[in-house]
Specification:
Oligomer: single chain
Structural class: mainly alpha
Number of helices: 5
Number of strands: 0
Strand content: under 5%
CATH class: Mainly Alpha
Order of helices and strands: HHHHH
CATH superfamily: lambda repressor-like DNA-binding domains
CATH topology: 434 Repressor (Amino-terminal Domain)
Radius of gyration: 12 Å
Helix content: 55-70%
CATH architecture: Orthogonal Bundle
Mean pLDDT: 93
Shape: globular
């Protein structure tokens, strides 16, 4: 699983937990719809730290809380260089 895949899965999980729409997250985070679609559909292969910070802010949580999920500690997580 790529980092982008992990971010997309974490977003989906938080959207369900917070009963929040993707549209509302886009509005709260300042991320354009097309960019969010690329993340969620796996077309984006290299999600940036800045984007992840914006997403975390859209969920009204610190970055550390967003990243505090077992999906990011998986040994199978592919980190591109």
């Amino acid at each position: 699983m790529t980092v982008n895949d992990a971010v997309a899965k974490r977003i989906s999980k938080l959207l369900r937990e917070k009963n929040m729409s993707q549209y509302r997250l886009e509005q709260e985070s300042g991320i354009q719809h097309g960019s969010m679609q690329c993340i969620m559909n796996g077309r984006n292969k290299t999600v940036t730290l800045s984007t992840v910070i914006m997403i975390a802010r859209g969920f009204n949580m610190p970055l550390t809380e967003f990243l505090d999920d077992e999906i990011f500690s998986s040994e199978d997580l592919e980190v591109e260089q």
